[in-house]
Amino acid sequence: MKRLSLIITAATLLCLQSCGQRVEKNESSDQQNSLTDVRIMQEVTPLQRYAYKAYYSETLRIPLAVSWYLTGNHVTGSYKRKGVAFHPDNDVKGDPVTTFDYMQSGYSRGHMCPSGDNKWNQRAQDESFLMTNICPQTHTLNGGDWNDLEMLCREWAKHYDRVYIVCGPILRGDKHKTIGRVRARRVTVPEAFYKVVLRTGKSPAAIGFIYENDNNNQPMRQAVRSVDEIERLTGIDFFSALDDNTENRIEAKADLSDWYKPYGNR
Predict the structure, then answer these.
(1) Of 111, 139, 159, 176, catalytic
(2) Known catalytic residue: 74?
(3) 220 and 266 Cβ atoms separated by less than 8 Å
(4) Most exposed of 58, 65, 158, 242 (fewest Cβ within 10 Å)?
(5) What Cα–Cα distance (Å) separates residue 142 from each residue in 57, 58, 104, 207, 216?
(6) From residue 194, how far is each of 63, 77, 100, 241 by CA, in Å?
(7) Which of 118, 120, 142 shows the shortest CA–CA distance to 128?
(8) pTM of this prediction?
(9) pLDDT tens digits, one per residue of 11-36
């Protein structure tokens, strides 16, 4: 998908870099920017964090996309979530979402870029608990199928050396359930969630997943979608930095058998 208007301009990205974007040793800043960038038509506030980028909707009060790259080293460090609290993001334009907006809502505070992907650095771990990286998820999804997919992505990161990930909510229709005790601060509850994953190298491939935000069991093989399909549903363009031929070829295909399966068939 190449025709969407790019909200995040090159000037914005340069500003984000100068404001403290992290670049690993031997890591090209151009590669990090391009393959973790998304093209999104909705109005969003771009938030560059140490380990991820969030594209946050001030009106819906949730991120519409969160993107990052993941390596084997990122998931095997010593910086774990114990003692780290969810906390508001004061870089938003309006009132920041707080953990109290989720109290007694019946929904979990669902990480988009998960804590388990940020064991390599304390700042990365801390920032994964910013509320601009969080969406309301059912307890069943958050602790079950979504968690299974997160663990699989970590195995892929170790097997393929590096993968690029984008995830976020799927919003259907014009009206959505909301949570929060204060009417002016209510948080939108997505109907479903997407995740797209890219691997590069000699055998580049991309795959997508959609999970309904409900309490039903959703086998992974049934959640598989092509990246093209998720782009059509969300209006977001993923991995546009790839050359056109590669992007068109890999985003049209959705085949879990093309990927390393550490847990066998699901």
Answers:
(1) 111
(2) no
(3) yes
(4) 58
(5) 21, 23, 16, 20, 12
(6) 12, 27, 25, 20
(7) 118
(8) 0.88
(9) 333 333 333 333 333 343 444 558 99
